Amino acid sequence: MPAPAHTIHGAPSARVPVLLTHGFGASRAMWASNADALAAGREVLTWDLPGHGASGAPAGLSHEQCLADMLELLDTLGAARAVLGGMSLGGFLSLLLCARHPERVAGLVLVDTGPGFRDDAARAEWNAWVAELAEDLEARGLDALRSGPESAAAEHAAGAAGLAAAARAILTQRDGEVFASLGRVAVPTLIVVGAEDERFLAAAEAMASRIPDARKLVIEDAGHAANMDQPEAFNRAVCEFLEDV
After folding, report:
1. Range of the domain at 73
2. H helices of the chain, where?
């Protein structure tokens, strides 16, 4: 299977590279105001999740396939370890990779991210919403996506059908593995959340209270895509964090 659609920013160096993973309904285009700034002195790889951007939606799509894609991209960089940066679903997948392959992770940047659910009822409610979203995408097309700068910047080669498949396969929550893994995260972690991203403020605090020595940054005048709403504040904070990794 070919590597997912991706872009490498910056040049190889002794500094640990960064792998940036976008959220559901977005694409690597959401990092356009960040990648070059973060790539000063290091490589930064942005990519399109399956069913998103220029990546197809292969049969048998799963969380495990996404993790395999991420590991393949690290191999593309020749990187034994990398800082994983992810927004929303991308942050969840970064945490999942850290839980299963901690030897490949040098640090985490979690942007407007949730760690999944430890409560079965809450997980079932989320999954019911995901199923409705997938059906809505199939019925109404891309108009079913929530409005936001990250989705507005994206063009999806696989169309709404690819996103519906991705929703069912990787937006659906299977268990509480990621939430349970938070206390075992053993790498430097920066948690970033927009002050206006009300649904994810509590999730950011839950992660900050459970991940050892995690740093949390609330960016004012920013919503669910804090890196796009306030790129200068985001870039400054992440660059400072990367210097310490």
Report:
1. 6-244
2. 35-38, 63-76, 89-100, 120-140, 149-152, 159-166, 177-181, 198-210, 226-229, 231-244
* Token representation of residue 24: 């559901």
Could you give the number of structural domains in the chain? 1
CA distance 202 to 31: 24
Question: pLDDT per residue over 178-221, tens digit each?
Answer: 999 999 999 999 999 999 999 999 999 999 999 999 999 999 99
Residue type for 117, please?
F
Residue-wise pLDDT for 139-153, tens only, equals 999 999 988 999 999
Q: Is 227 domain-assigned?
A: yes
Question: Would you give the distance in Å from CA 133 to the centre of its chain?
Answer: 19
216, 241 in Cβ contact below 8 A? no
- 25 sits in the region (left: phi over 0; alpha: psi -120 to 50; else beta) called left
Residue 1, domain member (yes or no): no
**Residue 146 located in a structural domain:** yes
Q: Are 191 and 214 in contact (CB under 8 A)?
A: yes
132 occurs within a structural domain: yes
CATH of the domain at 219: 3.40.50.1820
